[in-house]
């Protein structure tokens, strides 16, 4: 196991990206509809053009200006340049599961690399998106965490990952025929709540009705966090009832301090209580994410302790669901997946305490499926 954090070392709540990088170009998806109309006026353009472009982008999933035939040809380039500047370039797309899992490595305007994954199932299509280039949380078993934080992504950069997947589904490029995005999970590169403003902005763009946004249900959006307690409390009052996923990974402070260093700032009890308060306010069940690591956190007694921690809230309703994640190890890492027998016993112990528990269906092992692997390889 890696060495514990030095005594007295704490991680800051706000993780600053390295200075000197420019800002991503302003994009329609960064703005509310009212802001888009104002930008049009400031540019000397008819305000209704902003609504037309919004309809193309969110409603029709159009990315080719030549298909925007309701825009005057003489103004088309200016309009598209003002509202729909290019945000990212696909460097590599890898497929698995007979083409139903597609992982894309994107290059942002400043050369930063991020990843998104589109996963199509018989009954749904899920897109896993990144919220930061890199990550400052320093979890030792995570490929992204080992690379450090480069910068926060903009709202539009986050949204564009979803729109790219939505276009691929709409055009029938993914096996199974034309389809739609049903779920978005903020479980890619980065800590979403460390980029709070942009992530909440992206959630609003995804859930606002078209043409303001993509028109998804908030119930189809999951925002994960390693446990930034003040931001969880802020999200509780935000009025966007997304599913909260708490990446816990250990039920005791001693081990979690090592696996999730932010725990030196916010204890297991404090973090779980903040998640419970979110569930109580929004009436949305919280998902406890728990990566199963052989000989590290998969002991049967830790399943019992996890149940004790979750019941310590005193809740008398099913506020929580445990999602066990078979670790997708990075090459050369000492962190490996649990033995299936230990995994089954962990599930049995939790279910015996009445806690709903599932084991995540893992995809993409053959295409560097874990977050950050593809970007690290490319870099």
From TrEMBL:
Localization annotation: Cytoplasm
HAMAP family for the chain: RNA_methyltr_RlmN
Upper taxonomic lineage: Bacteria, Bacillati, Actinomycetota, Actinomycetes, Propionibacteriales
Active-site residues, Swiss-Prot/TrEMBL: 115 (proton acceptor), 371 (s-methylcysteine intermediate)
Binding-site list for [4Fe-4S] cluster: 135, 139, 142
Gene name of the record: rlmN
Organism for this UniProt entry: Nocardioides anomalus
GO terms of biological process kind: rRNA base methylation; tRNA methylation
EC number: 2.1.1.192
Chief location bin: cytoplasm
Name assigned to this protein: Probable dual-specificity RNA methyltransferase RlmN
Entry-linked SMART domains: Elp3
CDD domains, alphabetized: Radical_SAM
Cross-referenced InterPro entries: Aldolase_TIM (IPR013785), Elp3/MiaA/NifB-like_rSAM (IPR006638), Methyltransferase_A (IPR040072), RNA_MTrfase_RlmN (IPR027492), rRNA_lsu_MTrfase_RlmN/Cfr (IPR004383), rSAM (IPR007197), rSAM_sf (IPR058240)
Co-factor note (free text): Binds 1 [4Fe-4S] cluster. The cluster is coordinated with 3 cysteines and an exchangeable S-adenosyl-L-methionine.
Enzyme class: transferase
One Gene Ontology MF term: rRNA (adenine(2503)-C2-)-methyltransferase activity
């Amino acid at each position: 196991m890696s060495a514990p954090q030095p005594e007295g070392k704490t991680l800051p709540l706000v993780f600053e990206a390295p200075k000197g990088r420019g800002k991503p170009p302003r994009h329609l998806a960064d703005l509310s509809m009212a802001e888009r109309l104002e930008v049009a006026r400031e540019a000397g353009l008819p305000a209704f053009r902003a609504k037309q472009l919004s309809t193309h982008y969110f409603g029709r999933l159009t990315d080719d200006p030549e298909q925007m035939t309701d825009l005057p040809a003489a103004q088309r380039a200016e309009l598209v340049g003002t509202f729909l500047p290019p945000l990212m370039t696909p460097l590599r797309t890898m497929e698995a599961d007979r083409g139903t899992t597609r992982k894309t490595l994107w290059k942002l305007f400043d050369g930063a690399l991020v990843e998104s994954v589109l996963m199509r199932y018989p009954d749904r299509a899920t897109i896993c998106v990144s919220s930061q280039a890199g990550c400052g949380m320093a979890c030792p078993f995570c490929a992204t965490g080992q690379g450090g934080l480069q910068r926060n992504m903009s709202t539009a950069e986050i949204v564009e990952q979803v729109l790219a997947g939505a276009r691929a589904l709409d055009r029938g490029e993914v096996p199974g025929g034309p389809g739609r995005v049903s779920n978005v999970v903020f479980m890619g590169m980065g800590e979403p709540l460390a980029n709070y403003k942009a992530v909440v902005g992206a959630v609003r763009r995804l859930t606002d009705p078209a043409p303001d946004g993509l028109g998804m249900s908030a119930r189809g959006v999951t925002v994960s966090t390693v446990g930034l307690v003040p931001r969880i409390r802020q999200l509780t009052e935000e009025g966007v009832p997304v599913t909260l996923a708490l990446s816990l990974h250990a039920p005791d402070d001693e081990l979690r301090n090592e696996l999730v260093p932010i725990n030196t700032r916010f204890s297991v009890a404090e973090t779980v209580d903040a998640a419970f308060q979110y569930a109580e306010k929004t009436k949305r069940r919280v998902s406890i994410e728990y990566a199963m690591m052989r000989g590290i956190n998969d002991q049967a007694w830790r399943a019992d302790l996890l149940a004790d921690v979750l019941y310590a809230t005193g809740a008398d309703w099913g506020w929580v669901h445990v999602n066990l994640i078979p670790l997708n190890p990075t090459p050369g890492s000492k962190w490996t997946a649990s033995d299936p027998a230990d995994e089954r016993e962990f599930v049995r112990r939790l279910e015996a305490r009445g806690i709903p528990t599932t084991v995540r269906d893992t995809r993409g092992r053959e295409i560097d499926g874990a977050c950050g692997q593809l970007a690290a390889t490319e870099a």
